[in-house]
Write a structure and sequence with these properties.
elongated; single chain; 97 residues
Length: 97
């Protein structure tokens, strides 16, 4: 019985593609699963574009310590960190920068 050479190649490519996708998902998820010592560099970047650096850093570090997550970028993207996004002030505004 003759085997088709493409079936083996296709199987190997499929396995590598799946491993690659799993690796990418772990990298993306890992951005939001921080350790407490990872908060300062992430918050430094998050607050780098604001003119109110001290309050931004204070609240970002507080939010990161509680949520172990900091959204990517210097503004927005809060939907990637539900805890960070949903923590509100007494007045109902966003607590986290």
């Amino acid at each position: 019985m003759a085997t088709r050479p493409y079936s083996t190649t296709s199987s190997v490519l499929l396995v590598f593609a799946l491993l690659f996708l799993v690796t990418l998902s772990d990298v993306a998820e890992g951005y939001n699963n921080l350790r407490p010592q990872d908060c300062r560099p992430r918050c430094t970047y998050r607050c780098s574009a604001t003119s109110h650096k001290k309050p931004c850093m204070f609240f970002c570090l507080k939010c990161c310590a509680k949520c172990l997550c900091v959204p990517a970028g210097v503004y927005g993207n809060k939907q990637t960190c539900p805890c960070y996004n949903n923590w509100k002030t007494k007045e109902g505004g966003p607590k986290c920068p």
